[in-house]
Design goal:
single chain, 132 residues
C-alpha cells in the first residue's frame, strides 16, 4: 500500500523510488502536453536533501543533510518559494499530502509563484483549484 493513500483528488504518485524519493503529479489528464506544454505539469517532489542543491545560493549543508524536503514546481524553473523541511520521511510524506491539499484547495495562488505568468496556464490552474 502506498504511503500516499490520502492524496487529494487530482494528485497521483508519478514515481516512487526504493530510496524513498517520490514525484507526484497534478492532473496529468489535463496537463498532458497536448493543450499545455509538458513542463507545465504541476509536480511535488519529496527528496532527501534539497533537489536544487547545485544551484547558487543553496548551502552544501542543506544538500547533504538527512532531512527530507517537499518542493512544489509549476514547471521546472518555477517553484513555490517555501521551505518544507522534515526530519523523517514519514513527516515528509505527511507534509507532501498537506501541500498537495493546499494546492488542490486553491490556497496556493500561481500568480504569486510566477514572475512572468503564462496566462492561459494560470487560468486553467485557477479553474481546477476553485479560484476565480
Amino acid at each position: 500500500m502506498s504511503d500516499f493513500a490520502d492524496l487529494p483528488d487530482g494528485w497521483v504518485v508519478w514515481n516512487e523510488e526504493p530510496d524513498g524519493r517520490c514525484v507526484l503529479a497534478y492532473r496529468p489528464d489535463v496537463f498532458d502536453s497536448a493543450e499545455f506544454p509538458a513542463p507545465c505539469l504541476p509536480t511535488l517532489y519529496l527528496t532527501r536533501g534539497r533537489r536544487n542543491h547545485r544551484r547558487p545560493g543553496v548551502s552544501r549543508e542543506d544538500a547533504v543533510s538527512g532531512d527530507w524536503y517537499v518542493t512544489l514546481y509549476l514547471e521546472p524553473d518555477v517553484q513555490l518559494q517555501e521551505t518544507n523541511r522534515f526530519e523523517s520521511r514519514e513527516a515528509g510524506v505527511a507534509g507532501t499530502v498537506e501541500l498537495a491539499q493546499r494546492f488542490a484547495d486553491g490556497e496556493i495562488d500561481p500568480d504569486d509563484v510566477y514572475q512572468v505568468p503564462r496566462e492561459e496556464y494560470i487560468a486553467k490552474l485557477h479553474a481546477l483549484t476553485g479560484q476565480s
